[in-house]
Amino acid sequence: MREIIDVVRSFEGALVVVPDRGSGLPELAWGDAFFYYAPDGVMPQRSQPYGTIVTKNYPDDERSRLDDPHRFRVNIHVGRDRAAEIARADADPAATDAFAPHPVYGATGWVSVVNPAATTAELVVSLLRDAHEAARARSSRRSGDA
Length: 146
Prior knowledge:
The chain is α+β, with helices and mostly antiparallel strands. The chain has one domain: Aspartate Aminotransferase, domain 1 (Alpha-Beta Complex), CATH 3.90.1150. The protein is 26% helix and 18% strand. It is built from three helices and six strands; from the N terminus they run H-E-E-E-E-H-E-E-H. Strand 5 and strand 6 form a beta hairpin. The protein is globular, with a radius of gyration of 15 Å. The N and C termini lie far apart (34 Å). The relative contact order is 0.16. It comes from Microbacterium lushaniae. Residues 1-143 form the DUF6194 domain. InterPro entries: DUF6194. This is DUF6194 domain-containing protein.
């Protein structure tokens, strides 16, 4: 998990938010990580993260069994078409080191991997980089820089 966070922090304009007790963010999110394109270092109020790492089950999102020890899930917005190429619709969201549609947001183009390792780590980083670039491009269009 730390390695992935460090890689994302190296992306130009990346903001990694890891909520904790003093962050003012909900306790449920403490210890998780949220990835944004935010070159000003301020968490965007009008856009969702392009990627996350979650370390526990959330309400209505228990199928990845994240409350089991030593499990975390990387979630990446890749778009519907790319998600269909990467993850089989019937993939087990609890399988480790394997892509699956996000258990809740899969239909909107999110994929997930529990405990990425040798099989998925390189593609996870590549997809996070692509998602970061897509977020950068959206930000540029919104600001009129494109």
